[in-house]
Specification:
Number of domains of chain A: 2
CATH superfamily of the largest domain in chain A: UbiA prenyltransferase
Oligomer: heterodimer
Radius of gyration of chain A: 20 Å
Mean pLDDT of chain B: 82
Strand content of chain B: under 5%
Shape of chain A: flat
Number of strands of chain B: 0
Order of helices and strands of chain B: H
Distance between the termini of chain A: 77 Å
Strand content of chain A: under 5%
Low-confidence stretches of chain B: none
Largest sheet of chain A: none
Structural class of chain B: mainly alpha
Helix content of chain B: 40-55%
Order of helices and strands of chain A: HHHHHHHHHHHHHH
Distance between the termini of chain B: 91 Å
Radius of gyration of chain B: 25 Å
CATH architecture of the largest domain in chain A: Orthogonal Bundle
CATH topology of the largest domain in chain A: Tetracycline Repressor, domain 2
Largest interface: A-B, 16 and 14 residues
Structural class of chain A: mainly alpha
Number of helices of chain A: 14
Largest sheet of chain B: none
Number of helices of chain B: 1
């Protein structure tokens, strides 16, 4: 009896483990797009209210991340990419993640309601529900279209930001939603093309597993075509302008070209060069979204239409 | 096994306590800041004050 361990079964997590539960990387996208949505809206908001609103939207996103990690702990334990997450690694218990997620969800919605308005707060609550319940619990393990519909959850933040400023929805915020919504499938499927083994072992119905890789390539190209008109259309609304339009035309041409290259390749060619094109298009997709929203900010500073 | 006065576990626990402490301090600052901004903007924020609110009582007809 040299080792007396009072804390058996009660892992002592560090603070950063709880931060990791909130998916800080996804949060950075939420922060940026929500901020742009709020900033380009035609209503002036006090800078401190802007800061608080974006913070609470991010916190709501973090809450849905924690709920996602609670529900998906079994999948995460199988996939190499996610094995180090706090729950499968045994640093945080599932129940703790669930309560953190629920408390943060309620808290962020209430605080956003008090800081901005209750329409935006309701929208945030709906987004958390959509990501945690509709995507994570319902769609993710059921249909290969999980990415498409689940992408809506990631597309809501700029609409919430817009709602914080204006208290409603309009064509500009809907088009910002469409921009992220139609961007998500080619973005994730490009990733799935060169990360194939993982999803397969976790039995998540990714398109690459259920319909094969040639079908996935066709889907990627099709979505880059669908995406382009919405990205351009956004440039013709009140938040658009020549700078945004120029950026959108260039970026969409590049993205469609990337989708076309992915479509024209077969598996043998991809394996031969280690999925170089797929990896390049995946990286391009990150720049694509980031630069569209940067262009909105620049256009706003330079004066929109 | 070397005996230390401070177990590695306590280090992790302290990181949690300090982190939570900072979050709470930041939250207090945030609510204070929000209050200042809302009051400056003249927002109508009437809390329950343990007595009938004059503003919601029906107006009595003046004779």
């Amino acid at each position: 009896m040299t080792d007396i361990n009072t804390y058996d079964g009660a892992p002592e997590a560090e603070f950063r483990d709880f931060v990791a539960l909130l998916k800080p990387r996804v949060m950075s996208l939420v922060v940026f797009t929500a901020f742009v949505g709020l900033w380009v809206a035609p209503v002036d908001v006090h800078p401190f209210i802007t800061f608080c609103s974006v913070l609470f939207i991010a916190l709501g996103g973090g809450a849905s991340g924690a709920l996602n990690m609670w529900y998906d702990a079994d999948i995460d334990a199988v996939m190499r990419r996610t094995q180090g997450r706090p729950i499968p690694a045994g640093r945080i218990e599932g129940g703790a993640a669930l309560s953190l997620g629920l408390i943060l969800a309620g808290f962020s919605v209430m605080m956003l309601g008090l800081a901005a308005n209750w329409f935006a707060a309701g929208f945030l609550a709906f987004t958390i529900f959509f990501y945690a319940v509709v995507y994570t619990i319902w769609l993710k393990r059921w249909t290969p279209q999980n990415i498409v519909i689940g992408g809506a959850a990631g597309a809501f933040p700029p609409m919430i930001g817009w709602a914080c400023a204006t208290g409603g929805i309009s064509i500009e915020s809907l088009l910002m939603f469409a921009l992220i919504f139609f961007w998500t499938p080619p973005h994730f499927w490009a990733l799935a093309l060169f990360m194939k083994s993982d999803y397969h072992e976790a039995r998540v119905p990714m398109l690459t597993v259920t319909h094969g890789r040639p079908a996935t390539r066709r889907h990627i190209f099709a979505y880059t075509l669908v995406l382009a008109p919405f990205a351009i259309w956004l440039g013709l609304t009140s938040v658009g302008g020549p700078i945004y339009l120029a950026a959108a035309v260039v970026l969409n041409a590049l993205f469609i070209h990337g989708g076309w290259q992915i479509l024209r390749r077969d598996e043998a060619a991809a394996v031969a060069d280690g999925y170089a094109v797929e990896k390049r298009v995946f990286k391009l997709s990150l720049y694509y979204l980031f630069l569209h929203f940067v262009a909105l900010l620049v256009q706003n500073a330079a004066g929109a239409w | 096994m070397a005996l230390n006065t401070e177990h590695e576990l306590h280090k992790r626990r302290r990181s949690r306590n300090v982190g939570l402490g900072l979050v709470l301090v930041a939250f207090v600052a945030l609510v204070f800041g929000l209050t200042v901004v809302k009051v400056q903007q003249g927002d109508l924020m009437e809390a329950y004050d343990h007595q009938p609110r004059v503003s919601v009582l029906p107006q009595e007809a003046e004779e």
